[in-house]
Design goal:
Layout lengths: L15 E2 L5 E5 L6 H14 L7 E6 L9 H21 E7 L3 H13 L6 E4 L2 H14 L16
Parallel strand pairs: 2-3, 3-4, 4-5
Antiparallel strand pairs: 1-2
Length: 155
């Protein structure tokens, strides 16, 4: 199959790194406030309807503390429900980079509440997640950088 172009618009939020587009890395900082998380998710919801082609997504939760309060879990489940039609159509794969088992448990619980209808995987580094997401995009016929962009290669 010939490679297709992944057509995406820019996402405007400081937590999202688009240097490797069509693979996007969402770095969640340690202990974000519920308001900060809400604003980040709102930016993603504004971006996702602009898509006109496949993308890959990496959630980098390595800095996130184990304390994800109920209001934040609700924000995340509501967000996934809202973006699901777009993600189901365009998300080639979503990797979550996680090193804390409590945070992994939160992710598992959220996925149980809103089952993902796109490929997902869990990894401990971006170096591990990137080739998996790259492969998911290749399965959709999309060319992406085989290795992460400079600055995205940390362990």
């Amino acid at each position: 199959m010939p490679y297709a172009e992944a057509v995406t618009d820019a996402i405007h939020h400081p937590w999202v790194d688009d240097r490797g587009a069509p693979i996007y890395v969402w770095r969640i900082p340690p202990g974000p406030s519920t308001q900060d998380l809400s604003e980040a998710l709102a930016a993603i919801r504004l971006w996702v309807p602009t898509l006109d082609g496949p993308y890959g997504w990496i959630n980098d939760t390595r800095e996130l503390s184990a304390t994800v309060v109920a209001s934040q879990r609700k924000l995340l489940t509501d967000h996934l429900s809202l973006v699901e039609p777009f993600a189901q159509r365009w998300c080639a794969g979503m990797a979550t980079v996680v090193t804390n088992q409590a945070v992994r448990g939160v992710g598992t619980a959220i996925e149980w509440m809103v089952p993902h209808k796109w490929p997902t995987g869990y990894f401990t580094t971006i170096r591990e997640a990137w080739p998996w997401v790259h492969g998911q995009l290749a399965n959709k016929g999309v060319r992406a950088m085989l290795t992460p962009a400079p600055g995205l290669t940390e362990v």
